[in-house]
Design brief:
There is one protein chain. By secondary structure, the chain is mainly alpha-helical. 79% of the residues lie in helices and 0% in strands. The chain has a domain of 55 residues.
Length: 174
């Protein structure tokens, strides 16, 4: 999929407006946009958040009003411990949807934003991961579970460090 994404050069026969060409152009664009989303999902599952973010940014270059991609980016930034960037993605999503389609984000996107804004997403996932047993009785399942816990711990540490810096800045400006 990475090779296919790298080979994609843009719209098929740009400037042609025959029906068959328009249909095929849209079909190829949709196929292209599914690839970064699948790679983003894989990156999220394997805690490769920065790589997943790069795929999301690539997808938005092709369709900057793709709400599903913004939601994935919001989750990836949150898991990376960068709440501000996650919230910026929401604001960019709102602006893109308004400019392109004159609509507001869906309820699920707004709900995700509220969870991120109130730090509920990180807390819920951490609690879920701490309380859920390994997905398998095999050592591989246990290793996966422990790696996931380690990743969540790192995200929580980055979030706590960010909060400490915010409080320090507040008190030093007084």
């Amino acid at each position: 999929m990475e090779e296919a994404i790298a080979l994609y050069q843009g719209d098929l026969l740009e400037g042609w407006y025959q029906t068959w060409c328009l249909i095929e152009r849209e079909n190829l664009q949709n196929i292209y946009l599914l690839m970064p989303e699948k790679l983003m999902d894989n990156c999220e599952k394997n805690s490769h958040y920065e790589e997943g973010i790069a795929y999301g940014m690539q997808a938005l270059k092709q369709d900057y009003a793709r709400e599903r991609t913004y939601r994935r980016l919001m989750r990836l930034y949150t898991r990376l411990g960068d709440r501000n960037s996650a919230m910026r993605q929401y604001e960019q999503c709102v602006a893109a949807l308004r400019a392109e389609l004159d609509v507001a984000p869906t309820h699920s996107t707004q709900q995700l934003f509220e969870m991120i804004r109130h730090d509920e997403l990180v807390r819920k996932e951490t609690i879920k991961n701490l309380s859920s047993p390994a997905s398998s009785d095999t050592s591989g399942g246990l290793v996966d579970h422990l790696e996931n816990l380690h990743s969540n711990l790192g995200a929580m540490q980055r979030l706590i460090q960010h909060e400490i810096e915010t409080v320090k800045q507040f008190y030093s400006s007084r």
